[in-house]
User: What shape does this take?
Amino acid sequence: MPGRSRVVAAGFLLPALLLLGALVVYPIGYSVRRSLFDRSDASFVGLDNYLALVTDDSLRTAVRNNLIWLVVAPAVATALGLVFAVLTERVRWGTAFKLVVFMPMAISMLAAGIIFRLVYEQDPDRGVANAVWVGVHDTFAESSGFPRARPLPVHPLKAAGGGAFVTKEPVRAGVPVLLPLVGVAPAQMPQDARPARTPHATGTGTGTGTGTGTGAGAGTGAGTGADITGTAWLDFTRGGGGKPNVVDPKELGLKGLRIEAVRDGKVVATATAAADGSFSLPADRADGAVLRLPASNFREQYDGVEWLGPSLVTPAVIGAYVWMWAGFAMVLIGAGLAAVPRELLEAARVDGANEWQVFRRITVPLLAPVLVVVLVTLMINVLKVFDLVFVIAPGSAQDDANVLALQLYRSSFGTDADLGVGSAIAVVLLLLVLPVMVVNIRRIRRESRR
Assistant: This one.
């Protein structure tokens, strides 16, 4: 009997309908009503809470970032999934690769956020991203050995502009040169640096010259007049007791320090300090010149990119999202790729098409329904993204990384909670998701009719 069948069907559907109404319909209706009232739920304010989405700076930022997420994240994740799915078909270890790429899906958003918060750490010794970035940078542009090193006023050096230092007086053949510096942390000293050698005077003929220093390197040496010698060292004795401008036994040489002899604005000779800080310059070129310690010795070490700074925090969080969801896209696209008729691909190759043409003109069009499914699913997902932004973005950059779901939480449960604005954001999110869901439902119905 048709009437009895309807009653039986309604009886079976009733529990599900009650549950759906309690968990979905009622919260939606309450949120719509609450969005029309003020903070205290006492006064009707109409659309004022919705207008706040346009006038408030943090809410405008959230809307802008959600649009960036909506355009970038699904497209990049789908494109990577497509590339992975196509390429893994051609390698023996494709299954293992798919397993590795899909594995992040087993990790919760909270755990992934904690992982990438560490990956994006500014300190290269802790953050993987900056460790790699700094390593690549230093391969092509070596960092300075002694950042923040400087002379004291009593030292025979003075600032020359641009971060360089020069000797206060020109150097002369036969007179040892002292280049003392301070401000080098023990951890920044070269590990193979040795106790500084006291420079000794060199004669101008072939006789002998007596050393003038008081350190362990004092003594006599044959002077040929060929070189101007000196020592560059850290003029600081740990524990105290050292004297300025004197090479004390416990003070180390500044290995690798670059020294230039400059005359009339031109570099006429260069030298690099040895492990004990000693260096030498040819007297025929350096005699009468001033010695310069170029700024390249003292520039700050490159610390990498501020991934979680105001300008890069949103792309950084999107990168974490793509890391998680590219595997999901790859698996779905791979399933669709397995259903593609191989004879079509082989026919195209026989007709002279190269691999790029086969991929662009045959593989991608045949995978279009699967790609739409993946893209729409990810678009719905990114409109609700909250966990990654909340965990990865530090407090100082959360306003710059703000999205609607995060702003919903902050407006509803933050220190200055306003449930009216929070409910308005929830309704806007629902309105943004509905068109995507409608498109997806229509597509599913068209597929079922075929």
Summary: The longest helix spans residues 2-34. Residues 157-297 form one domain. Confidence is low (pLDDT under 50) at residues 204-224.
